[in-house]
Amino acid sequence: MASFGLGDRSGTQSLFRRRDRRLGLSFYLILSVILFVISALDHPVTNLVKKEASDFMAPVMIALTKPMDWGADALDWFDGVTSIYQENQRLKEENKRLQEWRVVAERLDIENQRMQTLLNVDAPPVETLVTARIISATGGAYVRSVLVNAGSRQKVRENLPVTDGFGVVGRTILVGDQSSRILMATDINSRIPVRLERSGQNAIAIGTNGDLLEISFLPLDADAAVGDRILTSGDGGIFPPDLSVGIIVSVDSDRIMVEPTANLDRLNFVRILDYYASEPVLEDLPQSSSEEEG
Amino acid sequence: MALAIRRLLVQSMRRISLMLFAVLLILVLRIPFVSGGAGAFIPDVALILVYYYTLHRPSVVPHWMIFLLGIFVDLMDGAPVGSSSMVLLLSATLLHNQRRFFMNRQFTVTWVGFAVVCIGAKALSWAILSLAYWQVLLPMPILLQMLASILSFPIFGWILGRFERHVL
């Protein structure tokens, strides 16, 4: 009888535990759904929370990245010591080549300035605001963003263009005090106004969450071929004109795909550019041309 | 009474240490060895952890902890907040109901079980994120992450087993 009573009590307890478990699950599932809806609607509160969380975790990520840097530095040092002679020879060759390029670059710079003066162009110079270290790679399958160790303390703002040594990486989206999230060009939410270098036609480069970008809003009779370079058009005011975005790798009847020139799979440092889009200055052009005609 | 308090304290310590260990694992995998496109290859360590401990020590992974783990993953990745929590909570519930089947089985059975759960979880994740972005997303990135998670399960299983033996 006693054992029956005990069994009955434990049975009741187990029933309660199961009910509590189910209630707990329902509560947290509903909470997740509510948060998901708020986040999917891009509510400012979720962005604020994301910023704070990134800032909070940034020192931890920097600390975790340090041993990697030390290891890489040690390997570099060892590699440098063992191949110092060959490296010296290579650098001499490279220096010779760069000196030739310097002459070409200086001539082109002068020519460029002369052209800009002739056209009365008031293009603001684009300078690097800060070179930032990537402290967290993206782990989600459908998110292409990285965290860098520069935030509003380094005067980083939202929607600043980000590049590496080769081309456009993306733009800053969530800026905290000491960290910022960079939405990469390949993210599905990324839209970059571009133009085809050869034909000059404007389009939009859209991220696919894959390795390539898709070119959209190009006229049906557009002159695009594999190997064409894609540059930023400067439209929209976020990216300055003429930054390299990618190279066309396939042209089908319904889609054009572009491989980014930035080395997005091997990013360590990125440059955040200090770019303000200036007001259009084209209104000066007709006046000057009419003066010339007059 | 004292015994009950002591048990509660021990239980809390176990859960906190597991949570910290989970956070560390998630962060270490996000150190930029690779980034960007290669992000898709990072295994879903939160799913592995939830799977492993729901089978072996369900008392150390309560719902609130799975929920917080999912939120943390979403915040670290910049993904829609709540999407990972939903997937992890549903996976844990499914597993909890099938726990007896996996008791005292060979590792291969546990591994195959994880593969099945992972396929289901990633399909759900794909559907939820397609809904969030309001378009049919390419399946390739999630397939790669699924593959990385399934292939790396023995390594993480070993690490989690050691942690369970020595800390929990």
Secondary-structure blueprint:
The complex is a heterodimer of chains A (294) and B (168).
Chain A: H1 2-40, H2 44-82, H3 84-119, E1 127-136, E2 145-148, E3 161-163, E4 168-175, E5 180-184, E6 191-196, E7 202-207, E8 213-216, E9 229-232, E10 244-251, E11 256-260, E12 269-274, H4 284-293
Antiparallel strand pairs in A: 1-2, 1-12, 2-5, 3-4, 3-12, 4-5, 6-7, 6-9, 7-8, 8-11, 9-10, 10-11
Chain B: H1 2-28, H2 45-56, H3 63-77, H4 83-97, H5 99-102, H6 107-133, H7 140-166
Helix pairs in contact in B: 1-3, 2-4, 2-7, 3-4, 4-6, 6-7
Give a quick summary of the entry.
Chain A has helices at 2-40, 44-82, 84-119, 284-293, and strands at 127-136, 145-148, 161-163, 168-175, 180-184, 191-196, 202-207, 213-216, 229-232, 244-251, 256-260, 269-274. Chain A is of the alpha+beta class and 294 residues long.
Describe it.
The complex is a heterodimer of chains A (294) and B (168). By secondary structure, chain A is α+β, with helices and mostly antiparallel strands. Chain A has a domain at 127-274: Thrombin, subunit H. Chain A is built from four helices and twelve strands; from the N terminus they run αααββββββββββββα. In chain A, strand 7 and strand 8 (213-216) form a beta hairpin. In chain A, the strands form two sheets. A six-stranded antiparallel beta barrel of chain A has the order 1-2-5-4-3-12. In chain A, strands 6-7-8-11-10-9 form a six-stranded antiparallel beta barrel. In chain A, 32% of the residues are buried. Residues 1-7 and 279-294 of chain A have low confidence and may be disordered. Chain B has 168 residues and is mainly α. Chain B has one domain (2-31, 40-166). Chain B is built from seven helices and no strands. In chain B, helix 3 packs antiparallel against helix 4 (83-97). The radius of gyration of chain B is 16 Å and the shape is globular. Residues 34-38 of chain B have low confidence and may be disordered. Classes of the chains: A alpha+beta (294), B mainly alpha (168). At the A-B interface, helix 1, helix 2 and strand 1 of A face helix 1, helix 3, helix 4, helix 6 and helix 7 of B.
